[in-house]
Amino acid sequence: MDEQKRANFTKIIAQVLISDGVFGDAERLHLDAVMKEIGMDEAEQKSALKGIDLDTPVEPWIESLGKEHHAMLVTAVNKAHAIDPSSGPHPLVDRIIAAAS
To answer: How far is CA 51 from CA 9, 17, 48, 58, 91, in A?
Structure first.
């Protein structure tokens, strides 16, 4: 995965984590782990997290990842969503999974 794809992947996961309006410690730790897992260095991490906005559509980012990364994205989105077990059904998660299928 190249730098732009890693940034887009991170932005998608971050949107899932912040979509409930709370970005707690567990969510931050999870996002840090995801970014390390996909090979992002500190500068790349900071850059990817700038300007994350819930109103930004995720579909172009999903498309940019290419089909070869869609299964990995769906797994990561489901794990991110599970960080907040009280969140229940989630329209953003559903949109991401549909776009990555």
So the answer is: 14, 15, 8, 14, 21
Q: Any idea which residue has 């794809």 for tokens?
A: 5
Beta-carbon contacts of 66 under 8 Å, excluding residues fewer than 6 positions away, are 5
- Write down the residue that tokens 């998608």 correspond to: 12
Nearest one of 95, 44, 96 to 75, comparing CA atoms: 96
What percent helix, strand, coil does the chain show, rounded to 5? 70, 0, 30
The pTM of this model reads 0.91
Q: Which long-range contacts (CB under 8 A, 24 or more apart) does 86-89 make?
A: 87/20
What per-residue confidence (pLDDT) applies to 87?
Answer: 64
